[in-house]
Amino acid sequence: MVIESRSRAVLLDRLTTAEEHPPPGGDDAYQALVRIGTHLQAGEVHGDDVFGLIVGHVKKLLDGDVAWLALADPAEGTVRVQVAAGALCPDFARMEVPFGAGIGGAAVDRGRPIVVRDATRYDNDLPAAVADTLRREGIQSILCAPMAMDGAVVGALYIGSREVVAFDSAASALLSSVAAQAAVTIQNARLYQTLTEQRDTLQQAFEAHRILTDASLSGAGVEKIAAELGRLMRCVLDLEVYGGIPRSLRFAADGVADLAFSDRAAQQPAKADRDEACVSVPIIAGGTELGRLRALGMEFLAPVQLRTLEHGATVIALELVKEQAVLEVEWRMQGELFEELVRTSETVPESLKARAARMGMDLDLPHRVGVLTPFDEAHDARLMEFVRRHLRSASGLVSRHEGRIVIVLADIDGQDLVTELHQRAARAQIAFSCGLSRAHTRLDIAVREANAAHGLARRSRHMLISYEQLGPLRFLLDSTETGETLGVVEEYLGPLIAHDAQRHGDLAPTLRAFLANGGHHPSTCADCHIHASTLKYRLGRIAAITGQDLNDPTTRFHYRLAFELLAFLELLGVSPFGQRS
User: Fold this and answer.
1) CATH number, domain at 396?
2) What whole-number distance in Å separates Cα of residue 108 and Cα of residue 565?
């Protein structure tokens, strides 16, 4: 038990006066117990000065050579010496015995004093090191009293003599009284220390609560709150957010973000699992886990640290809910703006231009439109969240139109962004087809082109088809039948394809390269990796099989058209030759 310093000084002053001027009747046992109790009440919690006062008074009171006090350690199951008075051997203060063993172990185990007249003959599983220390100290007789309170073992109090002494019942009673008073004092001191630690924990937790709450109310944002949390906990902290705007961040013990870690996490999101030792708490809102906080390098946390981490998770959860609400408004506004822009076929009103500018779009510049659908319809919601997440920093829109995901991107980076989307989606195991328009200042035209390209990509299971790829034959997309197109391809290319299939030849590819190079022999030879004589032989065979003059410009045009139609049919997923093509 701790007493105010002024009260302690008064008690010690009274004790000193009593010792210098003892009361009439002598220094009897009762007065000694009073003085010991006064000292105990004036001592520091767990300090050696408390234990020194106890053993010093016991040694003087019972006229022994050595007095010592040992405290029980329930976790280790031992009784270990804390302080000794009168001991000569350096190892004396390091003695310890298991519960139930030795003199102190027996006294603690039985709950009553133990008198040993001849220590050299006492065994009771006394550890050899303890027996040797007592022998070198010259201890002959020992009286030991257990210190216990409410059934809880506190320790043991000893008095020893270097001569054989018969400790009587009065000595045992007196030592037991001092031991009981010491046990009460020590237990009270421990309780006070526990209460003090709990008070300090609550105060520190409240201070952390205030700091984190103030950061949230000031609009600091998720990242800054997590950085402040890492600083408060004085450890490396990981923040992982799953939904909304997913992110993986790491903060040093001083709250500084590890940018290199964030870059690695963005490039390899699949490696989000941590192998480091850590204490992890979930970030939960509305019964949904939004992410996790990890205190790295920790096997366990002190109570104040754990409460701080848990409160940090709560504050970040609230911040993520606010963030999600802002995103929902942002996405709704993007959808409304897109629908109005699509309905505007001619001049865009200045009011729409102003609204678009607030979202980072300059409608005076050309934009591309992309139409996206997942190959697996069950991934539609995931794809929408994925696209919104990765295009949020781009100047453009993400919306739904006629049940499909639609994106509007600046012309300068449109195709590159879609290609990057495919690469990132593949790592997240999301596959989708996309039709991309040409660059236009009128979004209604761009949407029609994107839909046409998307229809072709969807039917042919292509990941990306841009409207430019369709070439001059894109008008065929409006056709409901492909019979005439198939007929043209079969008529002109069928004999060559059949010949190549039967004889493992390369006449059709050779003719295609010859036409693409405008009939230039050296270029054709280079593309086909053949000799000039081989080219002449193949061209002769082609003329013989088809019965056509390849030097005639009209014939060349017909064959070029046939090859272009074949490529277009293959984009549509239609092959006039089956496995032969």
Assistant:
1) 3.30.70.270
2) 100
CA-to-CA dists, residue 200 to 98, 193, 196, 231, 247, angstroms: 34, 10, 6, 19, 35
What is the number of domains present in the chain?
4
The rounded radius of gyration (Å) of the Cα atoms in the chain is 45
Q: Which long-range contacts (CB under 8 A, 24 or more apart) does 557-561 make?
A: 558/492, 559/492, 559/493, 559/511, 559/515, 560/515, 561/488
Residue 523: CA count within 13 A, CB half-sphere: 10
Give me the pLDDT at residue 534, please.
92
Q: Which of 142-146, 354-358, 416-420, 455-459 has the highest mean predicted lDDT (pLDDT)?
A: 142-146
Compute the distance between CA of residue 211 and CA of residue 228 in angstroms, rounded to an integer. 8
Strands 288-296 and 278-285: antiparallel
User: Cα separation of 341 and 325, whole Å?
Assistant: 25
Range of the domain at 493: 483-580
Joined together, the tokens standing for residue 400 give: 């739904």
User: 493 or 39, which is more confident?
Assistant: 493
Q: Give the three-state DSSP class for 563.
A: helix
The answer to whether residues 181 and 120 belong to one domain is yes
User: Which residues on neighbouring strands pair with residue 558, listed in sequence order?
Assistant: none
Distance between CA 565 and CA 574 in Å, rounded? 11
Please check whether residues 58 and 184 belong to one and the same domain.
yes
Asked whether residue 145 falls in the same domain as residue 95, the answer is: yes
Q: Are residues 45 and 166 in the same domain?
A: yes
Strands in 7-151 per DSSP E: 66-73, 78-85, 96-98, 114-116, 141-149
Report CA-CA distances (Å) from 370 to 382, 446, 473.
17, 9, 20
Give the pLDDT confidence of 320-368 residue by residue, as tens digits. 888 888 888 888 898 898 888 888 877 888 888 888 888 888 888 889 9
CATH number of the domain that 158 lies in? Answer: 3.30.450.40
Apex CA 316: angle with CA 315 and CA 321, to 5°? 100
pLDDT digits (tens, 9 = 90+) for 128-152: 888 899 999 999 999 999 988 777 7
Same domain for 161 and 271, yes or no, is: no
CA atoms within 13 A on the CB side of 114: 25
Does 210 map to a domain?
no
Phi/psi of residue 428, each to 5°?
-90, 5
For residues 551 and 457, membership in a common domain is answered with no
Look up the pTM and report it.
Answer: 0.49
What the block records as the tokens of 332 is 């709704």
Same domain flag for 87 and 150 = yes
Q: What is the CATH number of the domain that holds 514?
A: 1.10.10.2840
Pairing relationship of beta strands 464-466 and 432-436 according to DSSP bridges: parallel
State whether 287 and 144 are in the same domain: no
pLDDT recorded at residue 84: 93
Label residue 534 exposed, middle or buried (CB < 10 Å: 0-12, 13-18, 19+).
Answer: middle
